[in-house]
Design a protein that fits this description.
By secondary structure, the chain is of the alpha/beta class. The protein has helices at 12-15, 42-49, 115-118, 123-139, 155-166, 181-184, 213-223, 243-247, 259-266, 268-284, 300-307, and strands spanning 2-6, 16-20, 30-39, 66-73, 85-88, 98-102, 106-108, 146-150, 170-175, 189-192, 204-209, 224-232, 253-256, 291-296, 315-319.
């Protein structure tokens, strides 16, 4: 079968190989899933660089998010059957034609959700929902809170802007350039950082950050009110938030949100509920994401080049069947 493989850490465009791999028979409690579409996310590429080398074992197949159809069922599987469409989660490995995964880590997709949206129903929607719950845990009532959202022109940034508004908060899109303004759309409040700085006097009750680095450090130091929260859920800059900036604001709650940590501790009932909310949000447009292009896995190099295009408008999806 067609697959990908990372044997050494490095530039994803250089170290992700296209390979032919054997199919494995599903064992007890497992199903084989024929992957229809898989997403490319920053969270797929960062481990390839070696950023998380302490918890990443080589070699590995990338890809955390996608959708497929159950093709074979192992012994002792009762809740799934061949032909069921599922979102398999719990580990990387979706950038290949067939994937064997424990049935308990596969979530059935409702008939009304098409494959393109189902392939993006995991990472961003569940992260957005967890971020709101993290704010609720810190503040209690969310109504009227002012929340800055960095990288608001991204797919998850757009989801957060809509979700925060629905929860009664007052979100502010924080963009690094005017080019990203069109991606936010709607009537949302927008701030464009000038040279990395926000206008003087800008204040938030909370910031949800996907960037990290000195920009995040400046936000913590200048723009979060006493008693507020700064939650980092990504590091698009590739640079950690300066520890000095965090230490200088003991009056601000600083926290990391790693979806993987919650997923592996939440239990099946909580995950079922989260996916139900994700699918509902896709159905009503809250979590619907634009797709920039779909590439066959055989054209992975082109897909990765498009992923890094600054003018990309939407998600890049891979079709491992071709």
């Amino acid at each position: 079968m067609r697959s990908t493989l990372v044997r050494q850490f490095g530039d994803p465009k250089q170290v992700i190989e296209l390979v032919e791999a054997p199919r494995r028979e599903p064992g007890a409690g497992e199903v084989e899933v024929e992957i229809s579409l898989a997403a490319i996310n920053p969270s797929d590429l960062i481990p390839v660089t070696g950023a998380y080398s302490a918890r990443t074992t080589l070699p590995f197949v990338p890809g955390f998010e996608g959708v497929g159809t159950v093709s074979r069922v192992g012994p002792d599987v009762r809740d799934l059957k061949a032909g069921d469409r599922v979102v398999p989660i719990g580990a990387s490995g979706l950038w290949q034609h067939f994937l064997v995964r424990p049935a308990e880590w596969c979530f059935r997709v409702p008939d009304g959700i098409d494959d393109r949206q189902a392939a993006m129903s995991y990472v961003n929607p569940l992260t957005a929902l967890r971020l709101v719950e993290a704010l609720r845990a810190h503040f209690g009532s969310l109504v009227g809170l002012s929340v800055g959202v960095t990288a608001a022109g991204s797919a998850i940034g757009g989801m957060l802007m809509k979700l925060l508004s629905l929860e009664g908060m007052v979100p502010m899109a924080i963009l690094r350039s005017e080019k990203s303004r069109v991606r936010v759309g709607g009537t949302h409040r927008i701030l464009v950082a000038d040279g990395g700085d926000l206008p003087a006097g800008t204040r938030f009750d909370a910031v949800l950050d996907a960037v990290g680095g000195p920009f995040a450090g400046a936000l913590i130091g200048r723009s979060v009110d006493t008693g507020g929260a700064f939650i980092q859920y990504g590091a698009l800059s590739g640079v950690p938030v300066p520890q000095a900036a965090i230490a200088a604001r003991p009056d601000v709650r600083f926290a990391f949100l790693w979806l993987r940590t919650w997923v592996h501790s939440a239990g099946r009932d909580a995950l079922d509920a989260a996916f139900a909310r994700s699918f509902e949000g896709i159905g009503n447009g809250l979590f619907e994401s634009p797709v920039a292009a779909i590439y066959p896995l055989s054209r992975l190099a082109d897909a990765l080049a498009h992923q890094h295009n600054q003018h990309r408008d939407g998600k890049i999806l891979l079709d491992p069947r071709c």
